[in-house]
Amino acid sequence: MMKTIKYMIINGFVVSLLLLTGSCTKEANDPAIAGNNLLNVAADGTTLLVGSNLGACLTEDLSFTDDELEILLHMKEEEKLAGDVYTFLFEKWGIPVFSNISKAEDTHLNAVKFLLQNYGEEYTQTGDPGFFDDSDFQELYAQLVEKGSGSIEAAMETGALIEELDIKDLEEYLKVVENENIKMVFENLLRGSGNHLRAFNRQLENLGAEYIPVYITQEEYDQIVSTPNETENGNQSGNQQRGGRQYRGGR
Hints:
Layout: H1 11-21, H2 26-29, H3 31-34, E1 39-41, E2 47-49, H4 51-57, H5 66-93, H6 96-116, H7 121-124, H8 135-148, H9 152-174, H10 180-206, H11 218-225
Antiparallel strand pairs: 1-2
């Protein structure tokens, strides 16, 4: 049996949260409805998670098992990794897709930190850009910025690789987590990662490059990039033609 970490939610904090985000209605607490206002998807696939709506969509169950807490800490580092690498690549190449998606990754990171906030600063704090608590992520960051510095094509491949990793991990974690708040956040992060993978795939196609997935199967990759951006609750956006490979308007 997994040991559950218990803590008390301070009444004043709850009141403040409700004042800031609006009261959680029964409808907002329904995961099938909660996603409707959590994602802001741009035409290029950049997917923001709207933090101002997150608090109103959560239930009060913000206590997690040890395994769930470890998963959240892992995803905190992984979302930070994505944002830090994209910021570096934008500074290196000046291509807007990296700046746009880096800002989106900041909202993904903040969503994970929001879930962790009752555990204190020890759990929500992150290192300076390019620095990580986990040595594996520190090593991976170095590898990714080195790869992405090689050429514009390599930089786009680096972006696709990061989104693949996010997709793989989120899919695996969604199979084991039981807390409904984690599920809701992770499901929306997964939609965002799929949209960002589509964005990098379009950039690679514009360059005439062929990308071979590393973390997910070719079948899953093809299925993702050949369908439109996902918006609220798994719906698909009509902002791009069905079949991502037909799109040639990448920034």
